[in-house]
Amino acid sequence: MTPEHKRLASSARLLLSSAAWALLAACGEESPEPQRQDIDASAAEDAALDGADAPEEDAAADAAPEAPPTEVLLLDDARITSEQDQPNFQNVTAAFTLPAGPWADARLVVALRSTCYPFEQWRDDPPPAGHNWPASCDAFDRNFEFTLDDPQGPEDPPGIELVRAITPFGGPMDFEVDVTDLANALPGEHTLRAHITTWGDGEGRVSGSRGGWNVSARLVLTPGEAPRRVLAVIPLYNGSLGADQGTQRFTFTLPEGTTAARLEYRTTGHGGAQDSSCIGPAEEFCERTHRLLVDGSTFTTLNPWRDTCEPLCTLATTDALGGSLEYCEQNPCGAISSVRAPRANWCPGDITPPFTALPDAWATPGEHAFGFAVAGVKPGGSWRTSAVVFALGDPE
């Protein structure tokens, strides 16, 4: 793999070695307005005779209180570890009940925390002898994903991907995503899985020997009229597409009453293969053409690429490790130039939103098809991809 930037950490200084670049290349892995109560004319006249407030003021004072949001706790500072003998190795799950709506708005709110940062924590949790990082610290950017209802058997549909994100280099991360349509369509019992592709470095040179992350997540559900009528949520694919896998094809049925269907297609490139046409190891640093098919015909082509990572590197300095160190606030353990580098549709420390579309061909109920292909994927690289269809109907 291509060496890049040396930046190992010790209690005195923080550096990242060429091995870090190898791991980097492989990491790929509003509330509704309150409604006024009506006040009849006689009540208004009585109020005026009694010298009371104007009817409009009475209406505001007497209005029924707005229902507060409902919160569902999913994960509370749950540890995802790189230790392969632990039950929460790279994954943690939560069973929960999604209350029936209708919901005007639903948000998945996530907080990710790392023992790598702030650096002052190293005073209480120093690197073991001969290591450069605290044992519990994962210093790299890793795949960070949330899925709903993973399959339990070969005949089950794929899990529904809710979020595609990449962790920062050893730093905290907070975000929320809109899951309103899913919340209105799928009340009931579910299982959520949070996944981070975290790995330990036994020698503690480029990352902690037992690194991991702490994840908290909750649903915030705001009562009110649903913005859309969602008839079905249909997951089609959730996996990694490697080299020479050709076109992936899926058939599905849109239910009666469907007048539109929304596609959500998430994809990011990862891996450490060599490709001279790319700016770095494939597929993390490669631009590839994705062809999407709707009912057997090419619907569109995409070139998933992200060249807007610089805002995730606000420069700061610290002397907590002895001597002055310049680093990125949002990605404190990463080499500055690496944090800012363009990538295959992702940036360290950010979510990757889906490509969305409303194909005209999917505006009727019945049997339909979807497919996708990625050109030029190299052996050793992959495109982490998911596809979900939301069947929509006219308001009742």
Put simply, the count of helices is: 5
Secondary structure class reads mainly beta
Strand content: 35-45%
Through-space gap between termini? 57 Å
State the helicity in percent bands. under 10%
Q: List low-pLDDT spans.
A: 1-55
Q: How many domains?
A: 2
Which radius of gyration do the C-alpha atoms yield?
25 Å
Q: Outline, from the CA principal axes? A: globular
Mean pLDDT: 87
The count of β-strands is 22
Helix-strand pattern? EEHHHEEEEEEHEEEEEEEEEEHEEEE
Examine the coordinates and then state which fold CATH places here, giving the name of the CATH topology of the largest domain.
Jelly Rolls
Query: What characterizes the major β-sheet?
Result: 5 strands, antiparallel
CATH class of the largest domain: Mainly Beta
Q: What's the CATH architecture name of the largest domain?
A: Sandwich
Can you tell me about this structure?
- The chain is mostly beta strands and 396 residues long.
- The chain folds into two domains: 194 residues, Jelly Rolls; 135 residues, Jelly Rolls (Sandwich), CATH 2.60.120.230.
- It contains five helices and 22 strands.
- The protein has a five-stranded antiparallel sheet with strand order 4-9-6-7-19, with no helix packed on it. Strands 11, 13, 14, 20 and 22 form a five-stranded antiparallel sheet that branches.
- Strand 17 and strand 18 form a beta hairpin.
- The longest helix has 10 residues.
